[in-house]
Specification:
about 160 residues, about 80% helix, transmembrane helix, mainly alpha, membrane, Sm_multidrug_ex, transmembrane, single chain
């Protein structure tokens, strides 16, 4: 009973940690597996936490951007377009949202990559799906090594 409770709390921790920006499912999955949590549940819950916050960041960024645009319009100011925004747009045009899904989990976090994609004109739905697929691919890759290690290190020695 106690062992089951500890495992369930560990899996809850995996879900919460997977939802934390920059911690990412890519980091949480190997740690959870190496701590002895069930591989499948660790991967599923870390990714579920990550995907939940990807959607929240994408939808939230859309609302924030539209509120800022309305405020600038009320003040009679032109839409903001500075050099940093222009550089981000050039990079995004070159590599697209799929490119952000590949590098996002490693460089800026999937949540922020989704928010940036939405700010550059990608729909909330597309940004959420593409970043979630990127997180899924990286999460599976990150879990593969530790899962194989745990599996093969527990086999009896052939000596």
């Amino acid at each position: 009973m106690t062992e089951s409770l500890v495992e369930q709390l560990g899996l809850l921790g995996v879900f919460i940690a997977g939802a934390v920006p920059w911690l990412e499912a890519v980091v949480v999955i190997p740690v959870g597996i190496l701590l002895g949590l069930p591989v499948v549940w660790t991967v599923v819950l870390a990714l579920a936490g990550n995907v939940a916050t990807i959607v929240l960041f994408a939808a939230g960024s859309e609302r924030i951007l539209s509120a800022l645009a309305r405020r600038r319009e009320k003040q009679g100011k032109p839409p903001q377009d500075d050099s940093r925004t222009a550089r981000a747009k050039r990079i995004f045009v070159r590599y697209g949202d799929v490119g952000m899904a590949v590098v996002g989990p490693l460089l800026i976090g999937t949540q922020f990559a989704a928010a940036i994609a939405v700010s550059l004109g990608v729909s909330v739905w597309r940004a959420s799906v593409v970043q979630s697929l990127g997180a899924l691919a990286w999460g599976m890759l990150a879990g593969l090594g530790p899962a194989l290690y745990v599996t093969y290190s527990s086999l009896p020695s052939s000596r």
